[in-house]
Sequence to fold (354 residues):
Amino acid sequence: MRLWLLAMNGSRSTSIPKWRLSKPGNMKVFVSGSTGFIGIQLVKRLVEDGHTVHALYRSKSKAELIRHQNVKLFKGDILDKVSLDHALTGCDEAYHTAAFAGVWAKDPEMVFRLNVDGALNVIEVAGKHGVRRVVLTSTAGILGPSEKEAVHESSPAPISFFTDYEASKFQLEQQFLGRTETGPEVVIVNPTRVYGPGYMSESNGVTKMIKQYVEGKWRLIPGDGNSSGNYVYVEDVVSGHMLAMQNGRPGERYVLGGENISYNQLFEYVREASGVRHKLFKIPLWIMLAAAGVMKGISRISGRPPLIVPKLVQKFNHNWIVSSEKAIRDLVYKPINARAGIQLTVQWIKNSKS
Fold:
């Protein structure tokens, strides 16, 4: 129990009160990606609601972050149906949050194996065990950039994607959007740029950036800083997952966003919350693009992931404004604004240092 409290210290206590989402009672709920940024917070909330979690994990050290008397740990892999069979036995519901979410992979085919084949394995084995519903975690990145107005669940698909992660998630979604006839019910959720208290993984890049700014280690803004994106607090994303399980319609997707703001506004909120005011240098995108090309070339030789890749830099040329109106209307999703979320995040960062 002590490990659980240490792992979660500061995340729930600094947040706004949350309504009870899941039905009372002890259900058995499967969670893949249970040691990831979103997964850890999801496991915590499910346990708080009185459920027993069947948590699939790969890293023993990371599994210690979710150790609890109501969490059953299953070592395995989403590409291994035998381990999935063990973990899903007796489960009523399932959340599939596991994915390769990096912006670069030495083997792009591996991204599709994990993000598509792995998810299909989870759905197949869940169906075998009579799981009622599976909530699949995707990304709002598959909706593409916004040009004149906010993108939403029904926006036309972009011609191409900026990352293999986005392309693989789009490929996966096409197999379940509109599907209601066979297997377990599948509901898709599409988080935007997630930030907040929690494990510092690659999926928690926004929080890493905020932390580095507060510590005086982050001094850059891409381009002129006016490029806008949507930023969502992690506990709202967890609530959105649970609401999708409870209220979502099978075969549909729901964007889980927070607030649309520019990089300049994001850092202004960080300054307000932290009291720290460092000078930020605006780096022209052509310089970033050249540097990213060099880093990518080095990575091909070394096998180590680059700090940034050209396609990621190209994303800064666009706005990524999204609408979460469907989730707000149909799921009763209630995200907090960016100022409040960043205040909670900075408070957690400062508390973690003390």
Notes: DSSP finds 13 helices and twelve strands in the chain. Residues 108-128 form the longest helix (21 residues). The chain has a mean pLDDT of 89.
